[in-house]
Specification:
The protein is of the alpha+beta class. It is built from ten helices and six strands.
């Protein structure tokens, strides 16, 4: 109970420290440190290491205590001292598995450790990817809301002159209600963006442990180096898990093969009889006789060998899948980058030019308010579209880098 209160107090004291500005790298660091799933995989790896300590040890010795050859029928039934064969026996025996089996068990335990470590690395990578993507989603969701706020200000600026134009007769009466309609539609879109921000912040809080993450700093600029990523594919946790599975299967084959070698057991005991009779001492050895290997051990060896072949093919398939996924993701990244560049160099400048020209035309009385407002909305939509294109590039670079970057030794 004292430990529970101490742990609760530690959480309460550390919670305020989590709040505060959160850069992209901070988010990854906190996810590494605070994600429960990472701690769970680390505990599993610790369990595998502890289990490996006893993997190749001899079984515990056995103590035998018994009353032997006690008569229960006949003239001496129920009497301890009327015959010369009733005795109390105490003995010790020790099973000794063959050395090949013990070595195979140690190898299997080592493969289990490798598998658990690979799973821990894979989980850490999964958490970092999720935290990084949540940070990116929140960052660009807030940027989209800023663009909508600027659009609201533009609509307000354009609608200021509407009463004077109506009074002078240079505007239609319907123009007076157009800004109100657009502001209502803008409020709907703003509510959607706020909901997206809330959802993204909740996802980021889930991975970092920060109850109210507030972003600071720019979006990460991760350079995607295809050559470097391909060179490091073999070190990825996903393939390390497959390699460890192959190691486990190979150890199971050796363990099955070791069953063809005999185990043995040594035992010693002392039999105590009535003082008028002599005591007995016994020493013996038991040896397994695997005479029927074709029907017992060999089928199991064949099954374990097939399992090892399956694990090897699974590993090859996983490697091919990773290569194909990387190539596909790189192609998407190039496409998104090209779209972003077109939006930045062509679409946004044209939208700004059109909005400025229509604003000037409206000020000169050449077009009505509705056309000027539509140009302002078109500019905002182009800005949001460009931001979406930039977000696609950023998401690609973060996901590809964190997913395919090789593990450093």
């Amino acid at each position: 109970m004292r430990r529970y209160f101490a742990f609760s107090s530690m959480i309460l004291l550390s919670a305020p420290a989590l709040a505060g500005p959160l850069t992209f790298n901070d988010a990854l660091a906190r996810a590494d440190r605070d994600a429960p799933s990472i701690a769970a995989r680390a505990a599993r790896a610790d369990a595998a290491r502890s289990s490996a300590i006893s993997a190749d040890r001899l079984p515990d010795p056995k103590l035998e205590v018994k009353l032997q050859d006690f008569p229960i029928t006949g003239p001496d039934a129920g009497r301890f001292n009327r015959d010369d064969f009733t005795m109390g026996v105490i003995g010790v025996s020790q099973e000794v598995p063959n050395i090949a089996k013990r070595r195979a068990r140690a190898t299997r335990a080592g493969a289990d450790i490798t598998f658990a470590d690979a799973e821990a690395l894979a989980e850490r990578r999964r958490v970092r990817i999720a935290a990084g993507m949540a940070w990116i989603d929140l960052f660009y969701a807030e940027q989209r809301l800023t663009i909508l706020d600027r659009l609201g200000q533009r609509i307000s600026d354009l609608s200021v002159t509407s009463p004077a134009r109506l009074a002078s007769g240079s505007a239609r009466p319907a123009e007076a209600i157009e800004p109100q309609r657009l502001q209502a539609e803008l409020a709907d879109r703003r509510s959607e963006r706020v909901a997206q921000i809330t959802a993204a912040r909740a996802r980021l809080a889930r991975w970092t442990g920060d109850p109210d993450p507030q972003l600071v700093g720019p979006a990460p600029n991760m350079v995607v180096d295809a050559t470097d990523l391909r060179a490091g594919l073999s070190t990825l946790p996903m393939l390390k898990i497959k390699d460890a599975s192959v190691g486990q299967a190979a150890a199971d084959v050796r363990l099955a093969q070791a069953e063809k070698q005999p185990d043995w057991e040594v035992a010693a005991s002392l039999g105590n009889r009535e003082p008028r009779f002599g005591n007995f001492a016994s020493i013996g050895v038991k040896i397994d006789l695997p005479f029927f290997a074709k029907r017992r051990q060999d089928p199991i060896i064949a099954a374990r060998s097939s399992e090892m072949a399956r694990a090897q093919f699974d590993r090859l398939d996983a490697e091919r899948e990773l290569i194909a996924a990387l190539d596909s993701d790189l192609a998407d990244h190039r496409m998104h980058h090209e779209r972003f560049e077109r939006g930045q160099t062509t679409l946004l400048p044209l939208a700004r030019q059109r909005a400025e020209l229509d604003r000037a035309s409206y000020a000169a009385g050449w077009i009505d308010l509705g056309i000027a407002l539509q140009s302002a909305i078109g500019l905002a939509e182009t800005e949001i579209d460009l931001l979406d294109r930039e977000a696609d590039v950023a998401r690609d670079s973060v996901r590809i880098t964190l997913t395919y970057q090789g593990e450093r030794p």
